[in-house]
Amino acid sequence: NKMIKKIIITGGAGFIGSHVVREFVNKYPEYQIINIDALTYAGNLENLRDVEDRPNYTFVKADIRDAQLVSRIFEAFKPDGVIHLAAESHVDRSIADPLAFVMTNVIGTVNLLNAAKETWKDNSEGKRFHHVSTDEVYGTLGEAGLFTEETPYDPHSPYSASKASSDHFVRAYHDTYDLPVVITNCSNNYGPNHFPEKLIPLCIHNILHNRPLPIYGDGRFTRDWLFVIDHARAIDLVFHRGNTGESYNIGGFNEWKNIDLVKELCRQMDDKLGRPAGTSEKLITFVKDRPGRDLRYAIDATKINRELGYKPSVTFEEGLSRTIDWYLNNQEWLDHVTSGDYQRYYEKQYSKS
Ligand code: NAD
User: Fold this and answer.
1) What is the DSSP letter of 153?
2) Whose CA is nearest to atom 5 of ligand 1?
3) 136 catalytic, yes or no?
4) How far is CA 235 from the centre of its chain?
5) 85, 135, 159, best to mutate for ligand 1 pocket (most atoms within 8 Å of CB)
6) Ligand 1 centroid, distance to 177 Cα (angstroms)
7) Measured between alpha carbons, how far apart are the two ends of the chain, in Å?
8) Would the CB of 230 count as within 6 Å of ligand 1?
9) Model's pTM, two decimal places?
10) Is 177 annotated in the active site?
11) Is the CB of 119 under 6 A from ligand 1?
């Protein structure tokens, strides 16, 4: 759609957002990409070093909880599209502090919806609000079955409850005000730039430092994993070609029990580090399960495949291998993140202007 020129991407300094920003900045030199991010603990502009000087990229430090600020930004840029990824994203943190998740994920989303509605009130032709969400809104599965776009919402954690609520608001703005929205619900992502509080980067980091690999319960929890760059490709596809008012599940038909995933990771790490097979597996430690944990998530990604021809570009083994290689080659990034040094990058880089 050649009409779309200016796109606001929220949460572009985060894990998935940075890959979406990179994909769009590289692929669409004719677009102006405006990255809006509050730079919380999860936001890291070092993720975007390679694109920060591009003429079609602008960074704005802003908090989406601030309704007036959000509407001033929309007035200034008059975006044609929004891809909304900014969120509090860590389930364990949501158990400790649910209200922070309501503020950013629910109220922040409604602030953006209001600003888009105001900006496009005279003409919403060719405009698009793309809300990026999770498969966790669907609740949990038993041993069998898959989540489809028709699966009723049944969130269990404060995180998934806040994301479910934001999805409902996005749909309500479509049904009530005709806002041209589209929603994607994706399975667990992994890949470069993943904050080391999450399972895969945490295990890579701990194997490198010979620390225990914590696995909840008995490791039978099952997740569907997608390489983050394949998520960014799917977002590009749905943003441009998805049907207005609809939602699309994104997944790779790639289910792993946590214990099997960590064992595969250990196998690849031993291999890459030249250690005897079985070395890293000895670090596996079972820890007490957290409350309300869902047994199994698995996505039926038939619709996006059938309607938009989407397929992931890498197998899990390849994606995992590329991810490990990235962490091994970017230990400075990992050290900055674990020491908190990455938070000074913004001051160094942007205090000049
Ligand atoms: P992340 O935590 O790595 O990044 C979130 C980004 O949002 C950070 O840069 C942070 O600074 C920014 N942010 C947080 N609060 C903000 C606020 N109030 N105002 C402005 N910016 C703020 O998260 P992620 O893993 O990249 O997830 C991005 C989105 O994708 C989220 O909406 C999440 O729900 C969704 N999602 C994530 C996964 C996954 O596996 N990580 C899977 C499916 C969907």
Assistant:
1) P
2) 14
3) yes
4) 11
5) 85
6) 26
7) 33
8) no
9) 0.95
10) no
11) no
Average pLDDT over residues 316-321: 96
Task: Name the packing angle between helices 228-241 and 15-27 (round to 10°).
Answer: 60
State both tokens at 302: 């038939």
Unique residue bearing structure tokens 């980067």: 201
Q: List the CATH number of the domain containing 130.
A: 3.40.50.720
Strand order in the sheet with 81-84: 57-61, 32-37, 6-10, 81-84, 128-134, 181-186, 247-250
What tens digit of pLDDT does each residue of 27-41 get?
999 999 999 999 999
Residue 195 domain-assigned? Answer: no
CA of 214 to the centre of ligand 1 (A): 23
Does residue 116 form part of some domain? yes
The parent domain of residue 120 ranges over: 6-190+227-253+298-315
Nearest CA to ligand 1 atom 41: 189
Q: Can you give the pLDDT at residue 1?
A: 46
* DSSP alpha helix (H) spans, the chain: 15-27, 67-77, 91-96, 98-101, 109-119, 158-177, 199-208, 228-241, 258-273, 302-308, 316-329, 331-339, 343-350
**Tokens 């196998």 correspond to what residue?**
267
Ligand 1 midpoint to CA 145 (Å): 28
Assembly ipTM: 0.99
Number of domains the chain contains: 1
The owner of tokens 């600020």 is 69
Question: For the packed helices 199-208 and 316-329, what is the interaxial angle rounded to 10 degrees?
Answer: 50
